Amino acid sequence: MKSTSISSTDFRTFSNLPSNRTPLSPNRCVANTLLSLPERVGSSSSSKAGSKTNVRYTISARYSDKEFSSVRSNEYTTSPAKVLRKLLESPGIHQGPACFDALSAKLVERAGFDFCFTTGFGISAARLGLPDAGLISYGEMVAQGQEITQAVSIPVIGDGDNGYGNAMNVKRTVKGYIRAGFGGIILEDQVSPKACGHTRGRKVVSREEAIMRIKAAVDARKESGSDIVIVARTDARQAVSFEEAIWRARAFADAGADVLFIDALASKEEMKAFCDVYPLVPKLANMLEGGGKTPIFTPIELEELGYKLVAYPLSLLGVSIGAMQDALSAIKGGRIPSPGSMPSFEELKEILGFNTYYEEEKRYATTSSQLPSPKGDFSSSSNEYGVPPGIQADREQRNQIPENPVEVLIPEVYGKFSGEGTKGNFSAAWSRKLRVKITGKDGFEKLDIRIPAGFLEGITNVVPALVGVNIKSLLDEATLEEGGKQLLDFQDTMGDRIQVILE
């Protein structure tokens, strides 16, 4: 296999690579190249002070025709990655709202979008209620992602953050996202713990490590026999400089990334310059709603700049939070949300698939069948299971033995028996009812219930003020009086009057 070597010391030299190269898609794998691990020329000890150490990059073919055929033969023709690749090859720009759970993903699909994203910001918020600051783990992200991909039929691009470690962790992450059903994965070059995009404190790893992450992702894809779309993201614009971000975008493309993404570009001019880097390699725009560092443009304007995909990371999460806050304010004020602010119950059932479920359930409906009675005829003529005659005789004999009657004691019959088997005041009192009344200090009645005196368990759950009161002892000492006897009458710490009356 032929290879070519070039030397590069900075962005200006590397930017001279041809910009009309074919995009890095497996459909054009023979013409595409892979940027291998940089090999330093010369040693620092032999370099003169102030001189730069050259870095040599070896460019080699990404797949041979035979290898590519093997990869494709192991993939389902309708895989999410294949659908996503066809979308990237189709005309126009494609919008993808970000979802954070299965329900939000279903809503994206119902709205007619061709694909959607997941974001660490949204999943950290929805799953943990925590900020996107490197707190959520690979396991939590891939588990949530699997629930999302299983809920929809459109391809989903999953946020793989920084791969959750070094290049070996990146390989595991990519393979896990493939198994979870993602059509694409976004990988960034931030250090650990990472920071959320458009926020302070972002730092990136070295050029070499960033390139190795993408190379590891490509290798993981190949080893899995998958065609998952690799979206390479750099945060170098905010962490270092615009020039460094452009350098890394080019290097990521040569390492095998399918889509390029520079986060937090600060102007229309920067966005245009980014799209001019390898124009045939698709670019992703991130339209951070609510005030990010990147200016907001319409899809048509973004397409004119050269973008292929556009993400809306906060729309669904943001409006959901706002709607829930409004609903909670209404409920706290003694109202329910207005009909226009939420779907009807029938609409909710339709969105969640109740009607589809009911229709499918009919396919598996069964007719009810009568089970043989245990006292029926088990003779060989009527019993298809052929119960042996000896067992049949034993059953008939047992059916003829009268059972001893068992009397279940309930409060109404407690009066029949005392501890010595005779009637007494204790048992008689326990067969009666307790009336519990609570009257507020404003004179309004809050509670008036009657319960059997024999069932005192749980009364403190209803009236916490009775905790510590020995009602059983009061019942033991109670004498039978016509019209009832008041056992308790006191005020609790809230000023409510508590009355317990034996009726």
Automatic annotation (TrEMBL):
A Gene Ontology molecular function term of the record: catalytic activity
Signal peptide (residue range): none
Name of the protein this chain belongs to: Isocitrate lyase
Pfam families in the cross-refs: PEP_mutase
InterPro entries hit by this protein: ICL/PEPM (IPR039556), Pyrv/PenolPyrv_kinase-like_dom (IPR015813), Pyrv_kinase-like_dom_sf (IPR040442)
